[in-house]
Specification:
Mg(2+) 2 binds at residues 224-225. The protein has helices at residues 2-9, 17-29, 34-47, 51-64, 90-100, 119-126, 130-135, 137-144, 151-154, 162-168, 174-177, 199-208, 267-278, 284-299, 306-318, 321-332; strands at residues 75-79, 105-109, 146-150, 188-192, 213-219, 232-238, 243-247. The protein is α/β, with parallel strands linked by helices and 333 residues long.
Length: 333
């Protein structure tokens, strides 16, 4: 316990990758008591986590997760959460649309933490059996091109940490790790980050973790997705190029909408809205999904630009392919 305590007490300055790896190994092994873990996490948050610390923590999660085999070209679309927007489930809808466009999607997600309905809550309200969806994830990816990887089922090492995080009652490094620890080991990702100043840091961590291609995005309104209201900052890395860009709905040929137009509710409300979207309903939700799906299709190497990606996404909604995929997925579980 003494060695572990010393490692965790030295977090007032950024830790090296190796030191952070040892600290998180101690945390996950149960060699550190709850109060020490809480102090360690809060100290890191107060000074902002470094790329090495984020990468080391994500790798520690990867080393302990229950993995899922996936096609080499599978992608994930996932945000860090915590943006407080209480919007409809954008990334969940994007996952379905992108999979209907022919890109395998291993969607990592969980129940709501700070919103009213997380990906798991809304998919469950739509009729997806979460236990069977995780148990049959590999077959689902292989057979219909989409799977939901329920975080609670694939990251048992996080179980003992959950009460500590609840007691802290604020954001910690663990809020950044979900998108970086996909159980399918995807190497192409669209990742939403609520804090725009964290984009370069998370991008550096993802590079260290071996990403093949990724786009990290943050809406102007501190959204962990591309904003349909104003604009967004996007950081590309890997096979789709590198560097920053400014993304607005206009690039995809889409109008702007106020955030109130995509305000969500409880799981039943969000599930009904997603159904309406896949049935062809026009409006802000559709346009937000088209914009973010365009980003995902760029990451997958399937779209030449934002307008092309949005057009592909619109096509699979309008011809019923996305709706049919959801129905097949529910029936599969």
């Amino acid at each position: 316990m003494a060695v572990a305590s010393r490692r965790l007490s030295d977090a007032t300055a950024p830790l090296s990758y190796d030191a952070a790896s040892e600290a998180f190994a101690d945390i996950f092994s149960g060699r550190v008591d709850a109060d020490e873990i809480a102090r360690f996490l809060v100290t890191m948050t107060d000074r902002d986590e470094s790329a090495d610390e984020i990468a080391a923590a994500a790798q520690a999660m990867r080393d302990r997760m229950i993995p899922v085999a996936a096609p080499a070209n599978a992608i994930d679309v996932c945000g860090t959460g915590g943006d407080g927007s209480h919007s409809l489930n954008i990334s969940t809808a994007v996952a379905i649309v992108v999979a209907a466009a022919g890109v395998p999607v291993a969607k990592h997600g969980n129940r709501a933490a700070s919103s009213k309905a997380g990906a798991a809550d809304t998919l469950e309200a739509l009729g997806l059996d979460l236990d069977r969806a995780s148990a049959r994830a590999e077959a689902s990816l292989d057979g219909i091109g989409i799977a939901f990887l329920f975080a609670q089922k694939h990251h048992p090492a996080l179980g003992p940490i959950a009460p500590i995080r609840r007691a802290i009652g604020r954001r910690t490094i663990f809020n950044l790790l979900g998108p970086l620890a996909n159980p399918a080991g995807v190497r192409r990702q669209l990742i939403g980050v609520a804090r725009v100043d964290y984009l370069p840091t998370v991008a550096a961590a993802l590079t260290r973790l071996g990403a093949e291609a990724a786009m990290l995005v943050s809406g102007d309104e501190s959204l962990d997705e591309l904003s349909i209201a104003g604009g967004s900052r996007a950081v590309r890395l890997g096979a789709i190029g590198s560097g920053d860009e400014r993304v607005t709905p206009d690039l995809a040929g889409l109008p702007h909408h106020g955030l109130d137009a995509i305000r969500g509710g409880d799981p039943a409300f969000n599930a009904a809205a997603l159904r309406e979207l896949l049935n062809g309903a026009a409006g802000a939700y559709r346009d937000a999904v088209l914009l973010n799906a365009a980003g995902a299709l760029i990451v997958a190497g399937r779209a030449a630009d934002w307008r092309d990606g949005a057009a592909q996404a619109a096509a699979v909604i309008d011809d019923g392919a996305a709706r049919d995929l959801l129905d097949r997925w529910i029936a599969f579980t």
